[in-house]
C-alpha cells in the first residue's frame, strides 16, 4: 500500500480504486446523527463511507451524500447484505432496498456481512450477478476466515475482492492477512480501536507518546502500514478530523513488530465460527 494522504487508494483485484481510509457508521443513529457524522467526514476530505443494512442508517448516509458538495462518483460507498436476507433472491431484494435507502443507482462495494452456513454460496452467486450487471463496482465478504474463503472458492466464478474483519493489535490474524494477500483479497479492519479499549493499552500509550500522536492515530497508521484498509467510527467532528491526521509520521518496522506482538487472538465482537444471528 502506497500511503500518501487522505485521498489515497488501494487498487482492488479488478482495478477498482478503494480509498484506504474511511468512516464507519456502525451504532450511529439514523437521522441527524449519521447525517452529521458523514457530513463532517466528507467535509474533512474522507471519500469512503461504510454502512450496512443491519445498521439501519442507510437513509441518513444517503441523505448526507446527496446533500454534500462532493460528487457521488468520488465517494466510495459500501453496504452489506444482512444474514436474514441471505440466499440468491433475498440478496437481490436486499441490494435493491439498500440502493433505494442510499439514494443511489449503484454501490462501490457490497459485502456478505457474515458467513451464514448453507447460505453464503447462494448469496455469493447473487453478488456475482449484481457485479456482472454493473450495479456494484466490487464485491466481497465480511467476517470470513480462511476456511470460509476456501469453501467459497470452490463454487465462485469471481473471488471476493475485499474481506472486512475485526482487526486490531489484540487480533492480528497474520496468517489470514497473508492468505488474503496471496489471493489478491484486500483486508479491511472493523473495530480498529478495539471499541475504545485500545486507549487503555500501556504499550500503545507509550508508543503514541514516542511519536507525539494519539493512540487512535498510532493504531490507524499501523493499520495502513500493515496494508489494511481502515474505517474508524466516530460521530464527533473533532475526532473524525483527528483520526485522519495520520500522514505526518511513519511507524518504524521495529515498532510495527512490537504492535504485532500484542496479538492475543482476543475478539471484541462475535466469532465468525460461532455466531447465532
Automatic annotation (TrEMBL):
Keywords: NADP, Oxidoreductase. InterPro entries: AKR, AKR5G, Aldo/ket_reductase_CS, NAD(P)_OxRdtase_dom_sf, NADP_OxRdtase_dom. Signal peptide: none annotated. GO terms for molecular function: oxidoreductase activity, acting on the CH-OH group of donors, NAD or NADP as acceptor. The active site is at 55 (proton donor). Residues 22-263 form the NADP-dependent oxidoreductase domain. The record marks 80 as: Lowers pKa of active site Tyr. Substrate binds at residue 113. PROSITE patterns: ALDOKETO_REDUCTASE_1 (PS00798), ALDOKETO_REDUCTASE_2 (PS00062), ALDOKETO_REDUCTASE_3 (PS00063). It holds the Pfam family Aldo_ket_red. The keyword Cytoplasm does not apply. Belongs to the aldo/keto reductase family. This is Aldo/keto reductase.
Amino acid at each position: 500500500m502506497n500511503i500518501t494522504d487522505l485521498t489515497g487508494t488501494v487498487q482492488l483485484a479488478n482495478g477498482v480504486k478503494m480509498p484506504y481510509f474511511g468512516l464507519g457508521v456502525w451504532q450511529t443513529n439514523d437521522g441527524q446523527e449519521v447525517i452529521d457524522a458523514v457530513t463532517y467526514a466528507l467535509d474533512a476530505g474522507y471519500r469512503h463511507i461504510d454502512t450496512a443494512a443491519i445498521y439501519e442508517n442507510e437513509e441518513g448516509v444517503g441523505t448526507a451524500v446527496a446533500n454534500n458538495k462532493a460528487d457521488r462518483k468520488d465517494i466510495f460507498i459500501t453496504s452489506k447484505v444482512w444474514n436474514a436476507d441471505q440466499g440468491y433472491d433475498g440478496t437481490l431484494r436486499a441490494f435493491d432496498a439498500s440502493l433505494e435507502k442510499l439514494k443511489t443507482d449503484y454501490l462501490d462495494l457490497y459485502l456478505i456481512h457474515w458467513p451464514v452456513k448453507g447460505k453464503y454460496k447462494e448469496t455469493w452467486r447473487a453478488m456475482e450477478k449484481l457485479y456482472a450487471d454493473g450495479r456494484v463496482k466490487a464485491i466481497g465478504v465480511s467476517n470470513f476466515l480462511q476456511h470460509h474463503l476456501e469453501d467459497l472458492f470452490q463454487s465462485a466464478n469471481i473471488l471476493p475482492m475485499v474481506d472486512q474483519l475485526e482487526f486490531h493489535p489484540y487480533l492480528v490474524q497474520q496468517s489470514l492477512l497473508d492468505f488474503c494477500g496471496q489471493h489478491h483479497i484486500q483486508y479491511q479492519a472493523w473495530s480498529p480501536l478495539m471499541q475504545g479499549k485500545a486507549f487503555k493499552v500501556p504499550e500503545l500509550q507509550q508508543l503514541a507518546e514516542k511519536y507525539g500522536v494519539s493512540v487512535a492515530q498510532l493504531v490507524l497508521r499501523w493499520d495502513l502500514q500493515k496494508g489494511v484498509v481502515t474505517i474508524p467510527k466516530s460521530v464527533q467532528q473533532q475526532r473524525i478530523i483527528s483520526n485522519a491526521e495520520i500522514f505526518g509520521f511513519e511507524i518504524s518496522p521495529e515498532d510495527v513488530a512490537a504492535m504485532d506482538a500484542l496479538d492475543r487472538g482476543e475478539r471484541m465482537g462475535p466469532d465468525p465460527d460461532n455466531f447465532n444471528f
